[in-house]
Structure formats: C-alpha cells, structure tokens
Design a protein that fits this description.
The protein has 18 helices and 35 strands. By secondary structure, the protein is an alpha+beta fold. Strand 30 (743-748) and strand 31 (751-757) form a beta hairpin. The longest helix is centred in the middle third of the chain and has 33 residues, at 425-457. The N and C termini lie far apart (61 Å).
Length: 854
C-alpha cells in the first residue's frame, strides 16, 4: 500500500532509502491505520528472523582497497560478538552472515590459528555463516569466472566453513550459469536482497520460487525485501545523516550501544507498533507465512557497514517483554532453509534466465569493458592444448588473472558521488582502482599467452607461426606491424602444403614520424603527434581455412610467389550500395536472402532532455502505468541518428572488399565505420570507431544490425548457457536489454545468421531505446542493437567516459546442415589468431629460462 501510494505521487526511492516528506506522510497514515487495527486481527507472522549482514559493495562508500580492509575487520567484530553471546538463549545469540567469500578469504589469510579455531566453532554453532559466492556480481562472467567465483576458497576451507547459500544482494538478477555452478557445489538455495532503484525483483518480494535449470535440477530462490530495509521495519525515519560518509571521516560514526534499536519500554512499544504495521502491509499484499525474514544492515552508511553487536540486547529485551511476533537472530542460510521448509510446497516453479536490470551500468566505460573482454580471450587462448599442458606457474597465473576479472565484474563501478562529482579525487580514485582489474589483467594475460607460445614453439624452427586457438575453422587476413619483419619479405609459404601466399601492406601508424601534410593523418588521429596514414606500415597475409585448435608454419621469403596459371574464381558475391556508396545488401550464391538489410552499421543516440535529466529518468521509471511512462518518454527522450558524412570509399584487397565511411553526430567528434566483406564466403566484419565528446548528459549509443531472418527468435548465451530472450526468462526479469557472452544465433529454414561482438556484450532488439520496462518482445527482433555506451545511472557508475572508443562486430551465414555449433562459430568470429615470428638462430637460453617461461 505504501509503495502504491508513494508511486502515485511520483516519489522515487534512491539507493540510500531516504524517505521524502511524502513518504513519511503516507507511512504515518498507514502506521496509524494499522495501529488502530491491532486489536481486530491477529498477525499471521509469529516470528521475525533478523539476519544481520553487511552488503559488500566495493567502492560505493569508500575506495575499493579501504572497503576490502573494512570487511576483513568486520569479521573480527562479528566473531567476538558471536563468541560473547554463545551461551545466551538461542534466539538471542548474535549471528553474522559474511555475504562475500572475497572478504572471508582476506580474513582467513591474516587470522591466527586461534582465531580460525574460534571462527570454525561459531560456524558449527550456527552463529557465523559464509556465503557461497565470492562477491555480488554483474552478469558478465564467462564460464571460467563462474568456476572461480564458486571456488574462491580452497576445498579444505570450504569443507570447514560449509557454505550453504548463495548470496546475491543489491543486483537485480543472477545468471543460470551461476546457479548451475552453485548446484555443482551442492548449494541449492539462493538468497537475494534486490535493490528497487531503477530495477527491482522479478516478482513481489518477499516471496520464493523454484528455479528449474536446463538439466532438470532445481534451486530454491528466496526474494527478500531489499537488503537494507530491515531497520525501516522498526522506525519511520532513518538513523544516519550521511548519507555516505567515508570510513575515514571522523565527523560521522556508526551507532553506539542501544542507539539504533533502543530497549527502554517506551521505545520497544513504539518499535513494536511500527513493526506490526509493516507486517500488516505485507499481509495485505498476500504474505501468509508464520516467519518473516528481515535482512538487517547497520545505519552508518548501509553498504559496507560493521556488525551492530547490540542486536542481541534488543532481541532479548523484546522477547522478555513478551511482544509478538517474537524475534530471532539468524544467518542467511538458516533463514533461507526455514523459508524453504515452510514455503517450499507453496511456491511456483519457473525456468529461464534471471536477467539483470542493472546490466546497463557496465557499459558506462566501454574501454574498460573492452579491456576485460580482451583479457578473457587471451586467457582462453593461453589455455589452448596447442601450447601443451598448462605448467604449474601458468595455472597459478591464470587463476590470479581470472580472479582479477571476477573482481572487475563485481557490480560496483564507482562511489555514491561518481556521477554527481565525476571529477572529484574520490570518484577518479574509485574507478581507477576498479579499472585496473581490467587493464592490468589484459596486459598480464597477453604476456602469459606470449610465454605459453614461446615455450611451446621457440625451438620449432624459424618462420611465422599462425595459431587458431578457437574451436572452429578460421579464414581471414592476419594483420601486424610490418616493423616486425627483419627483411623485405614478399611472400609466405606454408611448410606443410607448399601453398604460397602474398605478403601485402596497408597504410598505418609510423611511430615517431611527424606528419608533414594532412594526408599523413586520418580523421581518427586527434593528437596528430605521429603520422598514421603512412604506406606499408601494416603487413597482411591471407590465411584460408585454418582448423580450430591448429596452426600453420609459414616460411617468409623476399621473393614474390611464382606466377600462377590458375584463373581467379568468379566471384559469387552481389553487392548493392545506397546513394552514399555504403552497402545495403550483400548476397552470395546459395543464399536465397541477402546477408544484411539496409541500415546495417547505422548509429543513433538516445538522450534525456530538460532540466536535471537524471531526475527525469526516475520520473519515467516510477510512472504508475505503461501509458504514462510512454507519455513521459515521448517528451523527455531525444533520438538522433548519425548522418553519412562522406561517400564511402571502396578497396579491393584481393580476398575481401572494404568499405569505409565517416559519419557525423552532435555527440561525437567523429565516427568512422569500416565494413570488410569476404569474397568467398558469406562473412563480414564491421569495425566502428567513434570519439565521444566530453558531456555529462545522460545518453546511450546504439549500433544497428538489421537482418533478414523473418520472425526467427534470437538465441544468445550468458556464462555459456544459451537462452531465447523474451521467451526463456523468469517472469518480471529485465527485457529492455541483455548481457551476452558475445554471439547471437538466428536459426531459420535457410540457415543460421551468427552475429558476434568483441567489445560490447550488451544488446537489445528492435528500435533501440530507453526506459521501456518492456514486458514482451518488440515487433522487430530481427534488428540487433549493440548498446555501446550507457551513462544513465546517477550513481555507482562512470558518468563521462570520453575519447576514442573502438568496437568490432562479425556476421556469418552458415548453411542449415553445417555441423559447426553456433557457439563455436561465435567464439571463433571474435577470436584473432595468435602469431609468433621465430628468428633463424635459437632464442637465447637465458631469455627462455628467466623471461619466457610462465
């Protein structure tokens, strides 16, 4: 009732749960009404189980390194509080849930043997609980990361602390890939405390459902009230004045004993009346279980806060007074197990993906996201059997880097003021720490890959080695700086087949060469420090049908390939251009439909107009009906499509045809799109570069890919688990956009259209717009929209990522009866072959021993 009335007057809850005047007024009315009814109806709820915990949100309240230290220290506070109350009546004993194993692992490494023994004794006593996940995560983890996030601590320690429940607070979804890895670990319960801000739980909370996996296994999911709202079931107003003071700010403090939940008779009566009123609201909504779960966080900042060890005193005083419902302190595992016992036969079963409303925030910094995706590809390549078994040091390094990427994919990208004060030292520092998990992992993963390659092939002889570490066959140009050559090479001969391939060259960057004329620089060269349009700076060699997990050994020669008497095969490719010479249709023989439709590679932005535009985001989001929301969207949203700024140029490379065109758009300094078309097979690649001007304006960027697939449903995957958007989802989960592994498959009677993205794993379908709260599929699911930028959030993410951003997309058509699995083809499309150029002389053994060994 409160939520309904508050939404009706346009109130919005922000992340901090600060009640406005209207919210206080409405809550007071409900409180008075419920108090008047106390004598007319007994409450269904007989017990309230309070679950103390601290939401782990790296960087939201403090810089990530400080947050990490705080959570390690909190465990000592909780351990002492639990130990001190171990002899109290069971309901009054202090209990604490460690939400993230990341924090527990930090504490365990530093703890003495005595403290470890005390900790384990409190685990056995049911007073300490360790969640089964490393952190609260975004939906961007790959299968390797899901393996790590569910194996964060060694198995011996896992067996000692016996995690029983996966905990995912704040975040608005949870991939099936994670649920299945939890089930693999023997965990069949998931606790959520979803934040309602710009999202919310898929079903009314609190409630539960059985979640059935593709393999038939089930997980019990309990959708709690938001993790931070337990205190608000006892008090009308929040205690804290912050709202987000730093841990090092000595003007603010956590509440002292008896201050947060006072235990004098008058206060207990007032808190009791307010609790009963809140529970009656839940009963009106349909809650009908005898136990009610209250997650409880401290009120210093709410997130990243210490245990409130006076909870035992409060529960003891409450129960001693004889107030009902009675209170009990519990862990998340105890509470979730209890709700499974009493609600397990009463709840629905659902299948499908649990998609995340907050997935859009991770595209607030496309460069950092691209770096993380690149790092993951390097690690996948480094693990290829092409380079032999993983050495112990390589395994250790891969685990270390995978953990870095897990932390990067944790849900917090900034602090509470990251958008309001984007250039403050705190905001800059918070994202600097966050992004280092991505950029550092990328550099280290590339170095590890090079070590694996050198160790395996440095003694295999001179020449150029080309490795396809992807699962499916690969064809295309390999491109690399021509300065890698030590001679004027003209050809490359496959040592196995004897086939000779031409070495050709493209214009590119010449480091340290100062531009002398405008022709020496491209439109992308903003600084014009070095010339980047210099001939013969990039070498290229065509590689044809290199099987998956295979390599070719090429011998380089300064002589050109012998003249061939074979006539070039007639091209089977038909290209139709628009009035500005950009391709609008591509078709190869054997295809009854073109590969693309007009508009392929178009760009548009959607932004928010008016004063205080991010306030309008919430106004639109909190609209009471879809009709009113669409009315607000029509006024506030502005869509601007980029215009073609030049006639597209055409280059025939012999194996491919390349079209390049500049675009113009008011938000961009420049934009260039480059479409490379394979002549011999229905495959294309779009490289799209843009320069975003500095602007705090909330907006999103879309690149469009219309495909002639009729009404075929797109199939995507997340964490290695495929699903059909809109059709295979938990009811009420996000349908506005989807985090994907990188590929989309349209299966039609004519064949498969496989679309793949390297850098921007957030997509939607149809027109590409914002704040829809979609409940069904759009009319045109044949249009893939890559969301390459989104800064609509008002906190917690990056506000003004600017400068050059690069994106790459591939599309291939596969005949219906071909045996390559779409996921294998998708993974191969976004892969780039690994190259090794061996010298004539052996590599220095000291280099091999001390530098190039993993």
């Amino acid at each position: 009732m409160v939520d309904w009335l508050v939404k009706g007057i346009g109130y919005r809850k922000d992340h901090h749960r600060r009640y406005s005047f209207w919210c206080c007024f409405v809550s007071l009315l409900v409180f008075m009404t419920a108090s008047a009814c106390l004598k007319c109806q007994d409450s269904i709820v007989k017990e309230v189980w309070i679950v103390p915990l601290s939401h782990t949100d790296f960087g939201f309240t403090d810089q990530p390194s400080v947050t990490r230290e705080l959570h390690r220290r909190y465990i000592d506070v909780a351990l002492d509080a639990a130990f001190k109350t171990r002899n109290l009546p069971d309901a009054e004993r202090f209990r604490w849930t460690i939400e993230a194993q990341y924090s527990f692992a930090d504490w365990w490494r530093e703890a003495s043997e005595l403290r470890r023994k005390q900790f384990l004794s409190m685990v056995r006593a049911g007073q300490l609980d360790v969640g089964a996940l490393a952190d609260d995560t975004t939906p961007y983890l790959d299968p390797m990361e899901w393996e790590q996030i569910t194996h964060w601590i060694p198995d011996s320690i896992w067996r000692s602390v016996q995690p029983q429940t996966g905990v995912q607070d704040d975040v608005n979804g949870f991939p099936r890939a994670g649920a299945m890895r939890l089930l693999d670990r023997g965990i069949h319960r998931l606790w959520t405390g979803i934040n309602n801000d710009l999202g919310g739980p898929p079903l009314q909370a609190p409630s539960g459902f059985w979640w059935k996996m593709p393999d038939g296994r089930r997980m019990f999911v309990w959708l709690n009230i938001p993790y931070s709202e337990g205190y608000q079931y006892f008090h009308l107003r929040g205690w804290r004045h912050g709202p987000l003071p730093k841990a090092g700010d000595t003007l603010y403090r956590p509440p002292v004993t008896d201050e947060l939940l006072p235990t004098d008779a008058t206060s207990l009566r007032e808190q009791h009346a307010f609790l009963v009123s809140k529970l009656r609201q839940q009963m009106v909504r349909g809650y009908h279980y005898p136990v009610f779960i209250l997650p409880f966080t401290n009120q210093w900042r709410l997130d990243n806060d210490p245990p409130y060890d006076s909870m035992s005193d409060f529960v003891a005083a409450w129960n001693k007074t004889g107030l009902t419902p009675r209170l009990r302190i519990a862990t998340a595992s105890q509470a979730t197990r209890k709700m499974e016992e009493i609600a397990g036969e009463d709840i629905p079963e659902y299948t499908g993906e649990f998609t995340d409303w907050w997935a859009n925030g991770s595209m607030s910094s496309p460069p950092a996201m691209a770096a993380s995706r690149t790092a993951k590809r390097y690690l996948q390549q480094a693990s290829s059997p092409l380079f032999g078994p993983l050495q112990p040091n390589a395994e250790k390094k891969m685990d270390e880097l995978g953990r870095e990427l897990v932390v990067f994919d944790e849900h917090s990208w900034g602090g509470g003021d990251s958008v309001a004060l984007p250039y403050s030292l705190d905001s800059q520092g918070e994202f600097a720490e966050k992004s280092l998990h991505s950029y550092g992992a990328m550099a280290q993963a590339q170095f590890l890959l090079s070590q694996r390659v050198r160790t395996a092939f440095a003694d295999k002889g001179s020449g150029l080695y080309v490795f396809n570490a992807a699962p499916a066959s690969w064809s295309g140009w390999i491109r690399f700086p021509s300065s890698a050559f030590r001679d004027d090479y003209r050809s490359a001969v496959d040592t196995a087949s004897g086939v000779c391939g031409e070495v050709s060259f493209e214009n590119g960057m010449h480091p340290w060469a100062i531009p002398k004329t405008p022709a020496d620089v491209t439109v992308e060269n903003d600084t014009q420090t070095f010339a980047d349009n210099v001939p013969k700076q990039t070498a290229r060699i065509w590689i044809d049908n290199l099987p998956g997990n295979a390599f070719r050994h090429l011998q380089l020669s300064t002589s050109p390939c012998p003249a061939s008497s074979d006539e070039a095969a007639a091209s089977t490719l038909s290209i139709k251009l628009d009035e500005r010479s950009w391709p609008r249709s591509l078709q190869w023989s054997g295809m009854s439909s073109p590969l693309i439709l007009p508009g392929f590679g178009d760009f548009h932005s959607v932004s928010i107009n008016g004063f205080a535009p991010r306030a309008k985001v919430h106004e639109i989001w909190n609209a009471s009906t879809a009709e009113s929301r669409n009315e607000l969207r029509a006024v506030a949203l502005q869509t601007v499509t980029a215009e073609e700024d030049s006639i597209a140029t055409e280059e025939d490379t012999g194996k491919t045809i390349v079209y390049t065109q500049s675009l113009k758009h008011p938000s961009l300094g420049w934009a260039v799109r480059r479409l490379e078309i394979w002549k011999s097979e229905p495959r294309i690649r779009l490289d799209f570069k843009l320069y975003r001007r500095s602007s705090e304006r909330p907006e999103a960027y879309f690149i469009s890919f219309p495909l002639p697939v009729g009404n075929a449903s797109p199939i995507v995957s997340n964490g290695g688990i495929p699903f059909k958007p809109y059709r295979e989802q938990i009811p009420g989960s996000c349908k506005d956009y989807f985090a994907i592994d990188g590929w989309i498959d349209y299966a039609t009677p004519e064949g498969h259209w496989i679309w793949a993205t390297r850098d921007s794993p957030l997509v939607t379908f149809g027109k590409g717009t914002l704040l829809e709260k979609a409940t069904a599929a759009p009319d045109q699911t044949n249009i893939v929209q890559a969301i390459v930028f989104n800064n609509l959030w008002y906190t917690n993410f990056v506000d003004n990522a600017m400068g050059e951003m690069d994106f790459s997309f591939d599309l291939e058509w596969q005949r219906r009866n071909e045996e390559v699995h779409p996921s294998d083809l998708g993974d191969t499309l976004v892969s780039t072959p690994v190259l090794l150029l061996n010298p004539d002389a052996p590599v220095d053994p000291l280099y091999m021993k001390y530098m190039f060994q993993p």
